[in-house]
């Protein structure tokens, strides 16, 4: 009988290129535990945006596996991250997802921490007690133009500066820090986190499953097979390619970087970006393809800015429009459940009911998320079937799924080698 380490090594080294993973990658509790150790406790994880904690004393909690992390805005307006663990006897400090505090006070024995993590009050500990070495344990936190990433390991991947330098010119014009969260949804998908990401990394399924999304978004933007298309689809695909080229040129001339950067499997912090043209009126991810918010983001004066797509390995994808932003994070709960957290951001000065309507703002992605959730559950059920075996990816429409899996296997390989 193989031990757990040997069994995992056999799975990782036995992965067949160009194919989906063996069933235990999606169904095994042991593999899930290894995923948390190798991936989610060691990589930069997207957790939210600076507007999640807009004012001093605002706190957000994020749970990643067994870890709970506090994201806090200090009095000096700096954002810091700490483990959500009292240094006395380990009690959790904050249970709520969002809170506003003057100090962080443990309900158990009233140990009190300043917003910068210093222990400032510990009653009945005696004259010899040294509070200076019992501050909250910090967590690495980086903001990429307002997008917040944390890393739980002591020595995080060193390439975040590279990713930030490449991505900042793309994201900065959208002024994330000058937005507010208009709406958030938390959806638990009944599937393994890798199935959630795999589903996101392709649009092979879009035309058949996403009638709302494919109103503004061209499915061709993520690959297609022209030799297999009927004349109408081919005509639309050619229209998209022509629009993509002309739009990229126009946007670049406006100072908006638009061309693809694709490093999904070539570095530890894998990422991809591209500004994609939209169909119809070409303004936003709405059913009428017009802007959902009357007040644009940043200093934009042209509504037809397409949609900037930004992905990070292992757990996020984002869409930056001229009028709003939609961000997504996938947080594993166990081998068969994944929390997908979606936030819709609008200009901080926009007024609900005057400048934007919530139902219109969230309609496309609320429907798409529900459809994707059903697809992920369907795949999870299939992976649990004894008849399941890894199937081949389409080289024309699922190449980015393959890149995600290659990234995952490479990270697991490095973890197992240590």
UniProtKB/TrEMBL annotation:
Keyword Metal-binding: yes
Keyword Transmembrane helix: no
Domain of life the protein comes from: Bacteria
Domain Rieske per the UniProt entry, residue ranges: 46-150
Gene Ontology MF term list: 2 iron, 2 sulfur cluster binding; iron ion binding; oxidoreductase activity
Database matches in CDD domains: RHO_alpha_C_GbcA-like (cd08884), Rieske_RO_Alpha_N (cd03469)
Necessary cofactors: Fe cation
Keyword annotations of the record: 2Fe-2S, Iron, Iron-sulfur, Metal-binding, Oxidoreductase
Pfam families (alphabetical): Rieske (PF00355), Ring_hydroxyl_A (PF00848)
Gene3D superfamilies noted in UniProt: Naphthalene 1,2-dioxygenase Alpha Subunit, Chain A, domain 1, Rieske [2Fe-2S] iron-sulphur domain
Protein name: (Fe-S)-binding protein
